[in-house]
Every structure is written in structure tokens, then in C-alpha cells.
Design goal:
Elements lengths: L14 H8 L20 H21 L3 E5 L14 H6 L4 H11 L3 E7 L5 E4 L2 E4 L7 H19 L3 E2 L3 H9 L4 E7 L10 H8 L1 E4 L1
Parallel strand pairs: 1-2, 2-6, 5-6, 6-7
Antiparallel strand pairs: 3-4
Length: 209
């Protein structure tokens, strides 16, 4: 290709860049397109390139079933917990319904909604969330059941559809209904029993990280 015709800064953002440009909740709110452009310009040139980047991202998301493979949309795992829970104190109150709406508006077709297996034993120390104690007998399992029920309520209510089937994901995408693929962050809920993996699959879990 003639170098004179080549765009020195082609607008081809990666996954995180696309999320940053759309903004909000699951998406990386507050990140401008100029932050990923090589040698970002200023003034009208920067504004024009940011507009190009947004347009590119929206075209991409409109054409493709886009899935976030590990997410905690709206901090759904905090729903129903008391306001003084250390995780809420550190992360803020849940806003699950709002973020599901932002997924729909932003064009994110689906996300792996990851339950947080070690939530009951977390505490805030030195401004960080860290494990503070061991699990009590049965606590990890009960926590898994609680968070799973929270997520199932959102899929039952309608704004979110539970699916891992490619055809169903495409149908949900065409209908502008975000889909949830159920995951669990951490295997504590298995409590050392390998047979519980099969039970989790029966519950709808498709990812354990």
C-alpha cells in the first residue's frame, strides 16, 4: 500500500477499548477514546478521532454477538446484603438492573455473570478487600445458593435471559435482551466434593474460575 495513503493511526480498538468507548457499569465508564489512540492529538483532530472511534465501536457491536467472559454486572452478588457489609462499604451498593439496561444500550450481547465464592469471608483491610477468616461448615455452599438465587430472579423477571446456547444467544442479541452465562469465581462452594461440579452444571453453571 502507498505510504501516503496509509492511516498512521488506524482506528482498530481492542476489547477493552470498545468497552471503554461505550461506557457505564459493565463497560468502563469515564474512559475517553483518546486514551487508547497512539499519539493522541488534541483539539478538533482528537474530537474527530474520538467520534470515529465511537462510530467504529457501535458498528462492531451491532454486527457481532459480543460476550464479556468474566464480569460482575452491577455487583449483582451484593443484592440483598445489609448496607454495612464490608463488600458494600468497599465497592458500593449494587445496581444490577441499571447495568443490565446499560448492557442492552451499549450492545453487549452477553456476559459471564460470575458469582463470588469467597464473599462471606472477605473484609476490608488497608483499603483492600482480603480474606479475613476461614469458612464455617456449609457457609460456602449456602453463599453459592444465595447468589445463584439472586441471579435467577433477574433472569426470571425478564430483563436478562439465561443461556449458553449459541442460537439462543443470537436470538437474545437480535431481541436486544442481554444474556447471562452463569459462572463462579472460586471453587470454595464445592467444599472439596468433586461430585458437586455436576450439581453446579445442573444448576446452570458453565464456568468456574
Amino acid at each position: 500500500m502507498d505510504n501516503a495513503k496509509r492511516d498512521p493511526h488506524p482506528v482498530r480498538p481492542g476489547r477493552r477499548d470498545v468497552l471503554a468507548m461505550i461506557g457505564g457499569g459493565l463497560l468502563a465508564a469515564g474512559t475517553g477514546a483518546g486514551s487508547w489512540l497512539p499519539g493522541a492529538a488534541s483539539g478538533t483532530q482528537e474530537g474527530a478521532r474520538e467520534s470515529d472511534g465511537h462510530a467504529w465501536a457501535r458498528r462492531f457491536l451491532a454486527r457481532h454477538v459480543t460476550i464479556d467472559t468474566h464480569a460482575h454486572p452491577g455487583r449483582f452478588f451484593l443484592e440483598g446484603l445489609p448496607g454495612d457489609h464490608p463488600a458494600i462499604a468497599a465497592l458500593g451498593a449494587p445496581r444490577t438492573a441499571e447495568v443490565i439496561g446499560e448492557m442492552r444500550e451499549g450492545g453487549i450481547a452477553a456476559a459471564v455473570f460470575s458469582l463470588v465464592a469467597d464473599l462471606p469471608v472477605l473484609a476490608v483491610k488497608g483499603g483492600r478487600i482480603v480474606p479475613a477468616r476461614d469458612f464455617r461448615p456449609g457457609e460456602a455452599r449456602a453463599n453459592y445458593r444465595y447468589q445463584l438465587a439472586v441471579l435467577k430472579r433477574f433472569t426470571a423477571a425478564g430483563p436478562l435471559v439465561e443461556s449458553d446456547d449459541p442460537a439462543a444467544l443470537k436470538a437474545a442479541f437480535d431481541a436486544r435482551r442481554p444474556a447471562a452465562i452463569i459462572g463462579v469465581e472460586g471453587g470454595d462452594f464445592l467444599e472439596g466434593a468433586a461430585e458437586r461440579v455436576a450439581e453446579a452444571v445442573a444448576d446452570g453453571v458453565r464456568v468456574i474460575t
